[in-house]
Amino acid sequence: MRAFWFLLLLSSVAYSQVSIRHDAGQEPVVYAVGKLRKAFAEKGEKLVPASTGASTNLPSVWIVADTALPVALRPYLAQKELDALQPEGFAFRWLDGRKTLVILARDAVGAQYGILELAEHLQTNGTYKTLAAKTENPHLTYRIVKFNLPWSPYRNSPATTLHTETCRDLRFWEAFLDMMAANRLNVLSLWNNHPFPYMIRATNFPAATPFTEQEMKDWQQFWKSLFRMAKQRGIQTFVVNWNIVVSPEFAKAYHTQEYNDRSEQVKRYTRESVTQLINEYDDLTGIGVTLADWMGTFDGKMSPQEREDWIEETVVAGMKAAKRPVKFLHRSVLAGDPMAMRGVIDRAGLTEPALVEIKFNWSHGHSTPTLAITHDYHSGKLDERFWTPKPSNYQIQWMIRNEDFFILRWGQPDFIRQHITTNTHDYVNGYFIGSEGYIPAADYSHKPSAVKTWQYAFEKQWLFYALWGRLLYNPATPDSMFASAFDQRYGKGIGPSLLQVYKLASNMPLRLASFHRSTWDYTLYSEGFIEAEPSDSKGVFDRSSPFISINEFIHHETLDPQLLSIPAYVALVNQKKPAPAGKLTPLDLADASEKDSQQALTLVASLRKRVNSRSGALVSELDDAAVWSYLGLYLADKLRAGVALELYRTTGDPAQKAAAIRQLEAGLMHWDQVVALTKDRYVPTPHVTTQNYGKEYTHFSWESLRPQVVRDVQLAQETTFRP
């Protein structure tokens, strides 16, 4: 008899059921319910459809994704609760003494986010009954990932092409899109030079594509599957290209130039390709254009108006001729004249406001949250005419480019919150995040090891995407949510300390990029302390190596207007004047960097005691944080050395020269700690910014740059006072 009751109890546990009601015709809802079903199954519970017959019983979970409240819910909830939600917003409401959870949304994407949050809560807490009632609306409409494709790439190098196989694999995209949906990133923008030959066989220009009929079918199946998977997850898709470009095959077959050919033939091909692309891909959301390097932007062959005219006659005209409207993304890069851009958008006859992307602090958005420069002009000057007067038919999305850390994990939620708070205006409705020189697909830097528990690069950098996505959706998302994500990975209770480690350690690249003004991609790579090309002609740039030498570091402008450069600060010291109110000196920055780095290292040491056989990637997480911390100490050393060396050069005080040498020697010791923490974990990595410096620098590693760190000491030793 006891065995009978035991089996009965076991059966009841195994078959514990949770009923759910939802619209099976809403793809993002169906997708999210699948994730929820898996979460319940992991807890030994079965998610089953609720009865839809005459029964008046309420289900355990009721998903509402509509503009009108269901009749059966009106005795319990008011329509105004649904009306208070914005597109992609959601609310949790409990009914009947917490027996029924209602997820309210006005659309399927908002419902999806609510369901996925329910699944997260269940996985973290073991029950969904403790979920708190709340309402959440998106802070920004567009939360966009910039993803550069490895075919027809803008940056052609081994760091790009090695991703080709991974990026043709739909299993990769399924994982990447799952990550985006979980983090409420709602747009995937796909970038390359010239996308059309990979997506269509142009009706009147069939030789533009190099592929056989079967290869073309395979490509089209790939794209249609990718766009379909995105749509199922509530993710919009944009194809973005550079102009004026055709394929090498087109140029050969139709006797044109590959770049900057403004013939009527190329115009017609581009216009017809845009139309055909839209017509053949029903799930594609939008088309994006950029006024690129090959539109005469460097040699003056095309004026701003001429570039806009070309866009209007090709891309916009092609959109108008298509069978359905799509969204239009017009990058502001090198526009030169916002009024010409406004004219194109005014005449486009769009059914929805256009997107206008502006690069925040050029290619290095992970710097200061103060908008100091853009890429709208070669000079980087700000032109408020892009947003003043406030546009009526477009809104702006800030592009937060990351050309500063490709290998190390990064995560600083306070910076992201401050950035969003400072830069959300009535003319801004979104952000882009992504890189030009880095594709987050194949992980080509980390050596195989027991702690490498991830497959793809973006999985290693999960915190970067979680922070940006969740905080763009709701900047008030608490740190506890991200700490809980660490707990899920590495053990309960580890999250708060590990998140604090990343907060402290991740300040290093922000400080360097704020202090060392940079513009286009190659002018700074913060985790490598590299300036492969000069950002302007005002500073020192000796081209001896891509590494930022002490002399280059000293004689360089700052990006953040709050920061004083080393020469400006030394001039004040020599004049016995205090720093102006509200300004930070290089020594202030050094003190802050040292303090954060030391605190982070102390926390890392304590957390290493938590590592066990089940910790997986925790060792790698801690090592990355320690590397950032030693780089932060190196930054502090170099700032202090720079001040001392400049003081010696302006005063002749030998004590300052000695101090500079000591600081640079201390910096060498800290750099050696970086090498020790990376040489056995990371392979020398193909890197776009160093490929022009010979065989010695075709692959990046901190160890390969050590001779340049030593050279800084030698430069200080060789410095002489010249009154």
Automatic annotation (TrEMBL):
Keywords: Hydrolase, Signal. Residues 1-16 form the signal peptide. This is Glycosyl hydrolase family 20, domain 2. It comes from Nibrella viscosa.
